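User: My advisor, Dr. K., asked me to get a structural model of this assembly before our group meeting. I'm new to this, so sorry if the format is off. These are the inputs:
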Amino acid sequence: MKLFEFEAKNIFQKYGIPTPKGKVVTTPKDAESAAKEIGKPVVLKSQILVAGRGKAGGIKPASNPEEAYQIASKMLGSLIKGLRVESLLVEEKLDIVDEYYASVTVDRSARSYVVLASTEGGVDIEEVAEKSPEKIVRLNVDPLYGFAEFHARKIVKKLGFGGKDLRTFSNIIYSLYKITMDYDAELVESNPLVKISDGSFVAADARIIINDDALFRHKEFSERAFLEYGEREAEARRHGLSYVDLTGNIGCLVNGAGLAMATMDLIKTFGGEPANFLDIGGGARAEIIKEGVKILLSKPDVKVVLVNILGGITRCDEVARGILEALRETGVKRPLIVRLVGTREEEGRKILEDAGINVFKDVEEAVREAVKTVRG
Amino acid sequence: MGIIVGKDTRVVVQGITGREGSFHTELMLKYGTKIVAGTSPAKGGTTIQGIPVYDTVEEAVQKEKANTSIIFVPAAFAKDAILEALDAGIKTIVVITEGIPVKDTIECIAKAKMENATIIGPNTPGIINPNEKVKVGIMPNHMFSLGIIGIASRSGTLTYEVAWEISKIGFGQSTCLGLGGDPVTGLNFVEVLEMFKDDKETRAVVLIGEIGGNAEELAAKYVEEVKYPKPVVAYVAGRTAPPGKRMGHAGAIIMGRVGTAQTKIEAFKAAGVSVAETPFDIAKILKEKLKG
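Assistant: The format is fine. Below is the predicted structure of the whole assembly, which you can bring to the meeting.
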């Protein structure tokens, strides 16, 4: 789960990491008074849960409160990278001397957390990693020993810092690690972390992504867990389904994430375009299948629905019943192509065939049929 | 032969009294797995399907000589269950549980390494060795058959599809295991390739990868570096997956430029690994490779 920048900055402050003076607003009027309060040029930053806002026009400077009002009225309610801007963070414009990078994330292949820092801040860190990897210092954390303050100093020393800066920078890095542990984060990042004219360090940007699987022990976020998803994705998640919107017109419902991706790929191979990813998981009951089919039917772009089930724990008769209930409840008439094999295959097939729905045994055949159907 | 599990495998089911635990205990028994004990705190002394239930894994090890564990307990208690198995001296732990916090997984794997134990998963369908009739997992029994193909996969149902195709052409499987759908797992492709390399029964290896992370790229590099002595066929799911979105599995996400299907497919091809365009081409490629 991604946190908004202002939420991440509140957490940073709690851990002693300085952030710019600022305020979250939802109206141009409040943006104006926030700018007045700050009393110097400001930056208006759209609070949306996506990276790369800056390039997409989601961050704009304003030199006075009136300008802040003007810009806020344009930004609020606009779409940036497909997401509606509902709030802005109005922040003091910093007098930046230098920009750095610091983060803690999960190193999948090393099976540990990794702490990264660089003197190249404010740019795409992956680009730095490609072009000048020597400018990034990385340290894998021993999972059974942890990350100590001296580790942070070691990193900052390697970056070439000394004196007061060494202490300040390493304290910040140590705090980022503590946040990662305390909040079960999979990413805690400041890019850029800046040095300003008075010599102090400030986290100009802050990103925190909480590990979804750990949300059960962070109840404070339960209210806002679906904010980063679109309407259909959030609806699917409420029913325990994983769903991702895509741009094609063949809706698909599959059991298993790998098989669901493979089905999407097959659609593409045979010349079609998948409208979505939808994994119903293992052992789904008719009720859940029904919700899944309803979500697909709610999407106007979907011209044909393709169901691909390889029943292990999932029972084909449950799937068949769920499909029929969804059709009955919505009354939507769209071509339906079903591939069913595995547990209770015969029962499932009979239920669907009695309702006039063609059932396939072979995946490739079913996908070809779906592609043919949308082409008309 | 085969890898990790075999005729000496004696299984304790952690969470045997739960819905999934008891259901799959029955299916594993049907397959031929030697399940010697189950655990469920405070339910020690009872039996389930003739299997004695203990309060602790330690008792299951002492009284029934369990050496392998399969874990069905809910995510919030999984770390405790894994650490308990390690503490009791279990050397192979299959973690079926989905949704374990990555912090817990990282800690458990580090601890397992210290104890020289192997964790399969989390979020895995488990491991099956058809030749020795051992299944420590949840895969449908009838899709697997005696044979010579080693399979390592990051997914569940997709693996069953592929295994089934391989069964239908008569090759069967030496061992098939799921690495797990999580970003951090106890085993990766390279480690499994190493094991299959030395397994006499395995004549070819199938890798079923997906988007996210760089496990496939590392596998490709390994195959090239050691001049892998057996044919390797790979499939990568998720060519149509958009970046930044989790495709069901916690581990299936393209982050920035890392983890796309394209880079994985290219890495495999460059290493001389045959890449199947669709999961159903895998069996065809194997036939070609093992001809004669």
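One thing worth pointing out at the meeting: Chain B has two domains: 11-120, 139-289.

User: Perfect, thanks a lot.
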